[in-house]
Design goal:
The complex is a heterodimer of chains A (426) and B (287). Chain A has 16 helices and no strands. Chain A is mainly α and 426 residues long. In chain A, α9 crosses α15 and α15 runs antiparallel to α16. Chain A has one domain. Chain B is α+β, with helices and mostly antiparallel strands and 287 residues long. Chain B has two domains: 75 residues, no CATH class; 137 residues. Chain B contains eleven helices and four strands; from the N terminus they run αααβαααααββααβα. Chain B has a four-stranded antiparallel beta sheet with strand order 2-3-1-4. In chain B, a hairpin with a 4-residue loop joins β2 and β3. In chain B, α3 crosses α11 and α7 runs antiparallel to α8. The longest helix of chain B is centred in the middle third of the chain and has 40 residues. The two termini of chain B are 28 Å apart. Classes of the chains: A mainly alpha (426), B alpha+beta (287). At the A-B interface, α1, α3, α6, α11 and α14 of A face α1, β2 and α11 of B.
């Protein structure tokens, strides 16, 4: 790896952090954590820690371009904080009843998920955990005839509820019991599907929540312990899924960390090397960027028997096969970074423009959050920023859960349940 | 407008502030964008043209690395790593190795179409012969690593090779030489390795008296001899033969200019948006 790459990377990270701090007057802004997160894993990917193939220089150039464009977009639109706001923790009675109704209605999903765990245990008697995971998202698998209900209603609701509850509790507007309800459901969902992602969402979102409110919250020891327990849960789930008794948790964490977060760069490079536009695929011009909406459109077009091709199908054709990335990353699929989606949408221009848009979007939501400290603005910031940093793995707005969660937060939470006002300190 | 409101409009970000600042500093925006555009035009006109010659090779056998076992976990991950010495892996290691690139260096060390005048420069600037040779070797290997690129396709068990140079005819020649040298190098290595294995088994057979053990060892020996025959006759097949390209791959002038001008526009907006913050910092420093 040329030394100049490291100098450029370090320069981009530091200049971005300084400029973002200059504009926002705080280090707890989206640009800082984004460049550190992406830059850190980019740095890690240049070493052959688990023997994975190193991405080509061309892939690195595109990733650096994306990082720069995100920074340019986010710093341009970052606002500073003129007034010191305090968080108004009161919610009017009308909204309070609606929030309670919304959260207590989640117990219906709790019952559904308990039923699903019962089914999971039954299936696992005849299948290995690995084979079970392959069947989870098929209509013949765990969900059977309930597949649509879970994909379109339950899953987005679980995530939306967790984002709302984390925002509300961290802002001190909602009682902690709501956090318990949403986390319980996500845990049940995680166990029923043997998935780690739901718990991962909790860990990252909590971390981001603390980060954005770092000047308003005191980090307590029990918070750190709670996050460590969640990480332990993810590691245990991984051990169970690989049915491995010989590997120690440290080697799993090491492999996870490096493979899951640096592997997508190698996978993206694989895509660049082996798939050519006009031959293997055509540009999808913005459809990939908002492909989560295709899932919703698909329902109606199917009902009306209209010819409609969900763009995600052609995206999955490339990312679905299990491929070796070298070393211990022997069966990698799905995670090709968000740049894969951007590149398939509009090539290099797509990477530049979409990364810029993502940066702008994060800053606008961050400004809105600092202006209002409302649950809605915080929830939207958390979900969009979560998707942005998880773009290291893949573009989550191609999936229904993220688009569905945003819709739920916007249309249910804001318009019906938790509309509220924030008072100024002075 | 009260003083407080005026201050708000200056400090807090909103899109109207940005548009207003952009309009106020419109000449700066245009100048910065134009600088980007002009630089990109000049660069794209002056930069050397690059041509790329490609080839795809298919190794003689599917390897443990490239063919995933069907019994592997579908959604989790296994931590098996490499098993045996896969052919694809061996080719990749060879392509990365200095020992192999040295073969090309020795053949083309006086070739300006490959090394330019960089190596010849060292003859003039470095008086110490030993140090000069070491420096020339290092520079040549670095340059070869830059010129020769390769990528694995695990779906089809193939390796794509590419050579990028200013001279398209020489790029074609180098690619053919690369394929020839690669085949010979790996063949030689395989045969040498297997020869030592064969000698080892032969020695074991000579020293063993038990007929069952001898039978087992003879089976192993015959497998090794068969492998030796296969690997010495067919290391890889050239699926996609190299050809002289008609078009350059770099620079793509129109794309370069449009992209750079567009990025310049976005950078100029960033610079304009940073001005109030910069002024603030400047006034703090001044105070």
């Amino acid at each position: 790896m040329p030394e100049s790459f490291y100098y450029i990377l370090i320069a981009i990270v530091f200049i971005s952090i300084i400029l973002a701090w200059l504009k926002s007057e705080t280090l707890a802004n989206p640009t800082t954590i984004y460049v550190l997160w992406w830059g850190g894993f980019l740095f890690l990917s240049t070493f052959d820690i688990i023997g994975m193939r190193r991405p080509s220089m061309y892939a690195y150039q595109l990733i650096i371009l994306s990082l720069v464009m995100f920074s340019v977009g986010s710093i341009t639109f970052l606002g500073n904080r003129k007034k010191s706001l305090t968080i108004n923790k009161n919610i009017n009675e009308h909204d309070s009843i609606k929030i309670k109704l919304y959260f207590y209605s989640q117990t219906i999903f709790t019952l559904l998920l308990i039923f699903m765990i019962y089914r999971t245990v039954g299936i696992l008697k005849n299948l290995t955990p690995g084979a079970f995971r392959g069947l989870v998202y098929s209509t013949d698998g765990l969900y059977g005839k309930y597949f649509m209900l879970f994909a379109y209603v339950v899953k987005p609701n679980l995530y939306a509820t967790s984002f709302i509850s984390i925002s509300g509790v961290l802002l001190g507007k909602l009682p902690k019991k709501f956090l318990f309800i949403s986390f319980l459901n996500l845990f049940l969902y995680s166990i029923s599907t043997l998935g780690r992602f739901p718990v991962f969402v909790i860990v990252i979102t909590l971390f981001l929540g603390f980060f954005f409110l770092i000047d308003k919250l005191k980090i307590k020891f029990r918070y750190i312990v709670s996050i460590l327990v969640l990480i332990l849960f993810i590691v245990s789930m991984s051990t169970f899924r690989t049915s491995s008794q010989t590997l120690n948790p440290f080697s799993i964490i090491k492999n996870y960390f490096v493979w899951y977060f640096a592997g997508p760069f190698t996978a993206f490079d694989y895509f660049l090397n082996n798939y050519k536009v006009g031959v293997d695929y055509d540009y999808s011009y913005f459809r990939g960027f908002i492909a989560g909406i295709d899932w919703i459109v698909e329902i109606f077009t199917k009902k009306l028997s209209l010819p409609f091709q969900n763009i995600n199908n052609s995206f999955h054709e490339i990312t679905a096969p299990f491929r070796s990335l070298g070393g211990s990353a022997t069966n990698h699929n799905s995670h090709y970074t968000m740049l894969y989606t951007f590149y398939r949408d509009a090539g290099i221009l797509g990477i530049a423009i979409y990364s810029y848009i993502v940066g702008v979007l994060n800053s606008i939501l961050f400004n809105q959050f600092r202006k209002t400290y409302s649950i809605v603005s915080f929830s939207l910031l958390l979900i969009v920023f979560f998707v942005s940093i998880m773009g290291l793995l893949k573009w989550e707005f191609r999936y229904l859960w993220s688009v569905g969660s945003v819709f739920i937060i916007l249309f249910i939470s804001q318009k019906i349940t938790i509309r509220k006002k924030v008072a100024l300190n002075e | 407008m009260s003083n407080e409101e005026q201050k708000d409009l200056m400090d807090e970000f909103n899109i109207y502030n940005l548009i207003r600042n952009l309009w106020k500093d419109k000449y700066q925006v245009v100048i910065i964008t134009m600088i980007f555009a002009v630089v990109s035009i000049v660069y794209s006109l002056r930069v050397d043209h690059l041509y790329e010659v490609n080839s795809v090779i298919k190794p003689a056998e599917a390897s443990a690395e490239t063919s995933l076992e069907s019994s592997g976990n579908l959604m989790g991950f296994s931590l098996g790593g490499y098993t045996g010495t896969p052919v694809i892996n061996q080719i990749l290691i060879t392509l990365k190795s200095n020992t192999f690139l040295e073969i090309l260096y020795k053949k083309y060390q006086n070739e300006e179409r490959l090394f330019g005048d960089g190596l010849a420069e060292l003859d003039k600037t470095e008086p110490d012969k030993l140090l000069r040779e070491q420096k020339k070797y290092d520079s040549a290997i670095k340059l070869l690593q830059k010129v020769i690129k390769f990528a694995v396709n695990t779906d089809h068990n193939t390796i794509g090779l590419s050579v990028k140079l200013k001279d398209k005819y020489f790029a074609y020649e180098l690619m053919n030489e690369l394929l020839f040298s690669l085949r010979n190098y790996i063949r030689k290595q395989n045969v040498e390795n297997l020869q030592s294995d064969i000698e080892f088994y032969q020695d074991l057979i000579d020293r063993t008296k038990d007929p069952r053990v001898i039978q087992m060892l003879e089976k192993k020996l015959s497998d090794k001899i068969e492998d030796k025959f296969v690997l010495s006759s067919n290391v890889f097949t050239v699926v996609n033969k190299p050809f002289v390209p008609s078009k350059r791959i770099y620079p793509k002038r129109s794309f370069m200019v449009v992209m750079t001008t567009f990025l310049g526009g976005l950078f100029s907006v960033l610079i304009v948006s940073l001005k109030p913050g910069m002024k603030k910092v400047y006034s703090i420093i001044k105070e």
